[in-house]
Design goal:
Blueprint (H helix, E strand, L loop, with lengths): L2 H6 L5 H25 L1 E5 L9 E5 L6 H8 L6 E6 L8 H9 L2 E4 L6 H13 L3 E5 L17 H8 L4 E7 L9 E6 L12 H18 L11 H8 L13
Helix pairs in contact: 2-3, 6-7
Length: about 250
């Protein structure tokens, strides 16, 4: 078992749970201080967020999105993130951070070992944690548009009878000091009683896409980014995207 495999599984012993939870709380505190020192936030729909377990499907505009979610979401328990498994999770500061905290659920991009991935997801949710998935599967370019969603979020929600929660993040396409970021939480979509059929998963995916599309509307950022703003935004982006097109 590789280090990334070990951290992807929910710890079973009390010492491992204590260690992982302590590291997660420390990371959450540090991220809260950093993002609030640099950005401002408008958090809408906080009261809609259910108690875990749930599957969280969010739109993805920038590398900062998962860090903002960890810092802002008022969950007393850790949030795991579902994403492609790197060949070496010790390469890159984001991979090292996830491996150290143990809140990653990696999967093979070629979809091999999907049974093992589904087992890890089931362990996360059955232990009472939340699983966050960037539903588009890639970084989008427009603040007011949601790319077609992959079916993973709906699949895991239905198979584990967990609510599907949509979260829209706006304002992270580029960053600047003092910029206001909007985070909107949609009404949880219940999955109790839904059967894991192809038609049901496609229907739930379409429903989540419609809700996310509605949540991202109404955000406007008419101020052009400065060279320093672009440098900061692109610092951890791979590949680089350049300046956004303003409405």
């Amino acid at each position: 078992m590789t280090p990334s495999d070990a951290t992807a599984t929910v710890p079973r012993g009390w010492y491992w749970r204590f260690q992982r939870d302590l590291r997660y709380r420390l990371m959450k505190l540090v991220l809260w201080l950093i993002v609030h020192a640099y950005l401002r936030f408008r958090f809408e729909g906080r009261e809609r967020l259910p108690a875990p377990p749930y599957v969280l499907c969010f739109n993805h505009l920038d590398w900062a999105d998962p860090l903002i979610l960890v810092a802002l979401l008022p969950s007393p328990r850790r949030i795991y993130f579902f994403g492609p498994r790197e060949a070496n999770m010790r390469v890159g500061w984001k991979n090292r951070l996830m491996a150290w905290v143990g809140n990653d659920v990696p999967f093979k991009p070629d979809r091999s070992r999907m049974l093992e991935t589904a087992r890890r997801v089931r362990e996360v949710l059955s232990a009472g944690y939340a699983l966050a998935i960037a539903g588009e599967g890639r970084v989008a370019e427009r603040e007011d548009e949601v790319l077609p969603l992959n079916e993973g979020a709906a699949y895991f929600a239905v198979h584990n009878q967990a609510p599907l929660v949509t979260v829209a993040i706006n304002g992270t396409r580029w960053l600047r000091f003092g910029k206001r970021i909007r985070v909107r939480i949609g009404e949880p979509i219940p999955t109790a009683g839904r059967r894991p059929t192809r038609e049901e998963i496609e229907s739930l995916t379409a429903e989540a896409h419609a809700v996310l599309t509605e949540l991202v509307q109404g955000y406007r950022d008419p101020v052009a980014p400065s060279p320093v703003d672009l440098w900061l935004t692109e610092l951890f982006n791979d590949p680089k995207r350049g300046a956004p097109t303003l409405p």
